[in-house]
Amino acid sequence: MNVKESYNIWAHQYDSNVNKTRDLEAISLRQTLSSVEFESCLEIGCGTGKNTEWLVHKATHITAVDLSEAMLSKAKEKIKSSKVNFKVADITGVSPKVLIRE
After folding, report:
1. Which residues contact 79 (CB under 8 A, 6 or more apart)?
2. How far apart are CA 71 and CA 45, in angstroms?
3. CATH number for the domain including 35?
4. Fewer Cβ within 10 Å of end Cβ, the chain: N or C?
5. pLDDT, tens digit, for every residue of 22-72?
6. For the chain, how many structural domains are there in total?
7. What is the rounded distance in angstroms from the CA atom of residue 83 to the CA atom of residue 92?
8. Is the whole-model pTM more than 0.85?
């Protein structure tokens, strides 16, 4: 099983699982970016949108990228904002500039 397949399987319970790394990452992101002003954001590895929900209140435009279609599907269920452009992409072989322009 590869990474994409694993996250596609995990997506349905990702938000409800105890995951200290995921939760600490969200706290760190919010603390780090709370005083930073920006209009656009490229969120790589957005998963189910846990941070995207917060970023919607910070940025005018967000490009939220994930490898897993199932994770993005969960994010799209939660986030109904025209500020967010969700994209399926494997970022290991793509320039961030390409993701933003698409």
Report:
1. 49, 52, 53, 56
2. 9
3. 3.40.50.150
4. N
5. 889 999 999 999 999 999 999 999 999 999 999 999 999 999 999 999 999
6. 1
7. 25
8. no
